[in-house]
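> example.struct
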């Protein structure tokens, strides 16, 4: 027993098919250009002596290592010394070990 009140499916127009294919094509172009390989960064493509001063540290592995060592030394010095951060506001820099001791004392006093 078939239901005669049910409509048969309408055929899809060629304009709709072409529009969908066009949208898919545009999507593929966006994906292709979005994920295509790009040129290497300037620091690796240019000779070290021709780089601007702010990118010169990226030129060689030795210069990168020297900059990294300098950053680590500065961080170690800051982590192990006392200094004023903002004297007017009363903000100081403490060694990490001393700061941890103060936090333990403060939290121990609350209990």
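> example.seq
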């Amino acid at each position: 027993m078939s239901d005669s009140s049910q409509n048969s499916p309408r055929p899809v127009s060629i304009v709709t098919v072409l529009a969908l294919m066009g949208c898919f094509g545009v999507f593929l172009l966006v994906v292709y250009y979005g994920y295509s390989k790009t040129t290497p960064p300037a620091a690796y493509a240019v000779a070290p002596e021709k780089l601007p001063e702010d990118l010169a540290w990226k030129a060689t592995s030795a210069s990168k290592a020297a900059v990294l060592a300098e950053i680590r030394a500065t961080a170690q010095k800051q982590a192990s010394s006392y200094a004023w951060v903002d004297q007017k506001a009363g903000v100081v820099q403490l060694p990490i070990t001393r700061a941890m001791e103060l936090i333990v004392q403060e939290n121990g006093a609350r209990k």
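> remarks
The first helix runs from residue 14 to 35.
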